[in-house]
Every structure is written in C-alpha cells, then in structure tokens.
Amino acid sequence: LSGVQSVTLWLKEGRDGAWVDTGLRASDAPDGAFQVENLARDGQYFFFLQAEDRAGVKSAAPSDDTVFAK
C-alpha cells in the first residue's frame, strides 16, 4: 500500500495556545482544500498538516518543539 489516505488540519491560536485537531480531513474534500470558520477572534493562528498513508502510518502530531525550530 502506498499513497496518502488523508490529511488532518491542526490549529493553534497564538504562541501560548494548545494544538487542536480541527476535525477537518482532506479526504473529506477531494480538492484538498480546507475551510476554517468560526475562529474565536482576530489574532495570530498557526496551522499544521498531519498526513496518514494508506498503510495507516501517520506523521507526528504537532508540538511546539517540532513546529517552532529553535
């Protein structure tokens, strides 16, 4: 088995926020587009994509250590 099965969109509000799985999956949107609605307020947001292949192997979930290189 090879190829991407799905892509998950993660969201973080500001540097001090927590990473949250938005529940949005690219497998649900054939064009691969995500539409994020109802953000709490204006501000700084960070996004992260997590892929899963057809064999069920997922890339790591986001963490500040992996996303924000020091």
Structure in words:
The chain has 70 residues and is mainly beta. It contains one helix and three strands, in the order βββα. The chain has one helix at residues 64-67, and strands at 4-13, 20-25, 45-53. A three-stranded antiparallel sheet has the order 2-1-3, with no helix packed on it. A hairpin with a 6-residue loop joins β1 and β2 (20-25). The longest helix has 4 residues, at 64-67. It is flat, with a radius of gyration of 13 Å. The protein starts with a strand and ends with a helix.
Describe how the helices and strands are arranged.
Blueprint: E1 4-13, E2 20-25, E3 45-53, H1 64-67
Antiparallel strand pairs: 1-2, 1-3
What features would you highlight for this structure?
70 residues; 6% helix; single chain; flat; mainly beta; 3-stranded antiparallel sheet; 1 helix
